[in-house]
Amino acid sequence: MPAADLLLPDATGIARAAALLRAGQLVALPSETVYGLAADATQDAAVAGIYTAKGRPEFNPLIVHLPDLASAMAIADFSGPALALARAFWPGPMTLVLPLKPGHGLSPRVTAGLSTVAIRLPAHPVMQAVLRATGRPLAAPSANPSGQISATTAEHVRAGLGHRIAAILDGGPTMVGVESTILAPSDTGTRLLREGGLPREAIEPVTGPLIADTTPGARIEAPGQLASHYAPQTPLHLGGAPRQGEIVIGFGANTPGDLTLSASGDLTEAANRLFATLHAADALAQARHAPAIRIADIPDTGLGRAINDRLRRAAAPRD
Ligand code: AMP
Ligand code: MG
């Protein structure tokens, strides 16, 4: 396939992205979390193309992105705490897993045959403009080859998928930097399926205590939960004393490192820089023939929980 077209986030680029998506092509789009690899969620062949381009296992369902609550309510059943969550946190980095409504019109590949669907209203103005211009729900997982480091810039997308997709819409670096928090609300309580850009501390005042459900590899209902994911080429170790020749990623003033997630120890900055820093550390390790990358301990509060979730999977043994 020829190299992907690079589109600007102006009226022309947005119209072109929408036309390609309606024609069943794959387009990488900026969102506030990470770049998404989008396809029209109503077209079976287009959705199949996402799995092929990413090398993603077919049992791993996709998140459907919509422009507004009305279109979300046409597809899924919002009962129990779902509506309160939607009103509190959309648009934003939160995905809700909800029962599908009859006549939803989505390709069954989007949900991997489940009777539930994962839905999100993104806050990024460029992604919102493309959603409106396309007039279709967009399935969009992270725009990286399956299992590898997520993309937070158009250049990351180009390096990973540049010859497998039609276009990349460059909206600059993403703002949040980690994927959405995935919740499954129900009358009996709200389960946390994946830590992400919306911290638990913000959610619990709305839902009450969340039910933890994020054990790596525990259940395929939340396959952002595959044990090895977000992995650099170079082995990654978490915490502990650096060994000879390792590339060190620091955090805070006490651990400066070769690279740092945040020199001042700020978790919002660290989440924002996480994937770009992993990409950069991997490149540095390869240039220096380093045996491994080692990353400083990150506090397990707020966005630190999503960071640690990604790091555990990035460091997990690979098949
Ligand atoms: P990704 O787009 O790669 O960040 O992954 C999206 C994640 O959403 C999947 O890995 C699942 O964990 C989750 N997901 C999507 N659809 C469903 C669903 N119907 N039920 C539970 N989880 C889902
Ligand atoms: Mg992903």
| Overall number of domains | 2
What's the name of the CATH homologous superfamily of the largest domain?
A: DHBP synthase
- Main beta sheet strand tally, sense and closure: 11 strands, mixed
Q: Give the helix proportion (percent range).
A: 25-40%
What number is the mean pLDDT? 94
Describe the structure.
Helix content is 31%, strand content 18%. With 319 residues, it is of the alpha/beta class. It folds into two domains: 5-212, DHBP synthase (Alpha-Beta Complex); 236-315, Rossmann fold. The strands form two sheets. The protein has an eleven-stranded mixed beta sheet with strand order 1-8-2-3-7-4-6-5-9-10-11, sandwiched between helices. The chain has a four-stranded parallel beta sheet with strand order 12-15-13-14, with helices on one face. Strand 10 (189-194), helix 7 (200-207) and strand 11 (211-212) form a beta-alpha-beta unit. The relative contact order is 0.16. Bound molecules: adenosine monophosphate and magnesium ion (MG). Adenosine monophosphate (AMP) binds at residues 60-63, 97, 111, 114, 116-118, 141-142, 179, 182, 193-194, 221-224.
